[in-house]
Amino acid sequence: xxxxxxxxxxxxxxxxxxxxxxxxxxxxxxxxxxxxxxxxxxxxxxxxxxxxxxxxxxxxxxxxxxxxxxxxxxxxxxxxxxxxxxxxxxxxxxxxxxxxxxxxxxxxxxxxxxxxxxxxxxxxxxxxxxxxxxxxxxxxxxxxxxxxxxxxxxxxxxxxxxxxxxxxxxxxxxxxxxxxxxxxxxxxxxxxxxxxxxxxxxxxxxxxxxxxxxxxxxxxxxxxxxxxxxxxxxxxxxxxxxxxxxxxxxxxxxxxxxxxxxxxxxxxxxxxxxxxxxxxxxxxxxxxxxxxxxxxxxxxxxxxxxxxxxxxxxxxxxxxxxxxxxxxxxxxxxxxxxxxxxxxxxxxxxxxxxxxxxxxxxxxxxxxxxxxxxxxxxxxxxxxxxxxxxxxxxxxxxxxxxxxxxxxxxx
Length: 411
Fold this sequence. Notes:
alpha/beta, Rossmann fold, 2 domains, eight-stranded mixed β-sheet, five-stranded parallel β-sheet, elongated
């Protein structure tokens, strides 16, 4: 029975060793106020039993279409769902879903659901990379499903590689983003697009223990990555010194310095439809890096450190677009001064950089850094300005992706 007024989420669990992780996903869904019905496969019950799912969801659990047959569960569960999440999704389950097979309650539910569907695959690397699996994934994505790229790491036994189930907390983030967009005209409007997002702040080393850096936390860049995954994109996230869990479904490239950030972003941009530079690269680096820790002088004097200017990555991306039509988005953390307001400086920067969009943050007094919320003005090269009121960083991310989609469609 569906709980009135609460989003109804179906959690499908297929028969992989990662089924135990779905218990954590279920807990997050129920504790955040969702009405959750768990639909495991028979194989999944070999890993986690029905009593566990029933206790955590507060509902009876069945894998076949014959239990409670008077309520027609093979039709009703899918018809009443606001979201279906399958975690883990095995190669077998993906194949059945792609080909419309319906031999148990979960596959019947997938056929009758008219809501968004998220698959979080988990399997051995060879199974994930097999052409049959890749074709099944492509088919599901073409139909509007969100298939989250598996993570890389330890698999069953001693094996490691791509195929690991992303962390439940990150699957939860993607699922809730998809659920929030279920009424959008095209919830997966980034499907088929490769987007590159940079996040965090670079470090320029003075010696083995000291560096020049900034206060960027990476939260906005990670919000951009998560929302892009939820909207169906292939996402490459270039993360500079960020202490955050990898967003589910994103390929994460970790860097430290501005030179490393430039190399990673320029490389990924070669196949990108959009590049969003949310990272804060250091503008300057020391002209020389000491091989030993710089010691205090006995006379109390301080060392003089000569700085060199780092390359302007955003301007380079905008000027030398490897792919025609790639949308380039920059960020500007600005403060007003005697020479102009925040927006005055931002408009000058937009013209100087040559990007398509510039997201402007007023950081007077340290605002924005490390906060879960943000407010901004999105400027475009045609003279438009979109004010985004204070809200979650995910809300700002969606506004940015809306404008990116509009530019990609008109390119």
